[in-house]
Design goal:
171 residues; alpha/beta; globular; 16% strand; six-stranded parallel β-sheet
């Protein structure tokens, strides 16, 4: 039989693991709205947002984003997020910035857009709790292509290369 203090300790730990997390969001480009919505939908809080272009700050208060609370703070440099008591960092920036940002937040849970890094050597160097987003897995065209490959294949290796071109609207 377990001691009551052990049970109380477990219940406290479970409650803490279910507690709302404070998020930092780096980058306010196109995909950041999905991250903001996911933070809200998972019952967490956007605590601080960051973008080098302060003009993107208006996006946090856009009438189309009704129901999404604005963050408590806004920073221009991603390193300044370290001044805030946050649990998680969501990285929505151009690909070449991912490695340095992940390195900066090794002590946090990181959610990063893909590709995570530019080469396999960078993957070997990273430490921390890093999670990669791959939202294209829900793309109907991509799903059809993969289904066609699987249905028409006998036994073979399949390599899939996805090239996504983005204009200035994305950033």
């Amino acid at each position: 039989m377990l001691d009551s203090s052990v049970i109380d300790n477990r219940e406290t730990q479970q409650a803490q693991s279910r507690a709302r997390k404070k998020f930092g969001l780096i980058g306010l480009g196109f995909i950041s709205d999905r991250h903001r919505k996911a933070i809200k939908d998972t019952n967490n809080d956007l605590w601080v947002a960051c973008d080098i272009e302060e003009t993107k700050r208006h996006k946090l208060f856009d009438p189309e984003n009704i129901g999404m609370d604005p963050p408590v703070a806004f920073e221009k440099k991603y390193q300044d997020l370290k001044k805030h008591d946050i649990d998680c960092v969501s990285i929505c920036t151009p690909n070449h910035l991912h490695k340095s940002m992940c390195d900066c937040f090794q002590d946090k849970t990181v959610i990063c857009e893909k590709p995570l890094f530019l080469n396999s050597e960078e993957c070997d160097e990273v430490n921390g709790n890093i999670n990669v987003v791959q939202q294209l897995r829900y793309d109907k065209g991509l799903q059809k292509e993969i289904t066609d490959i699987i249905e028409n294949a006998v036994f073979c290796d399949v390599q899939l290369r996805i090239n996504v071109c983005r204009g200035e609207w994305y950033f």
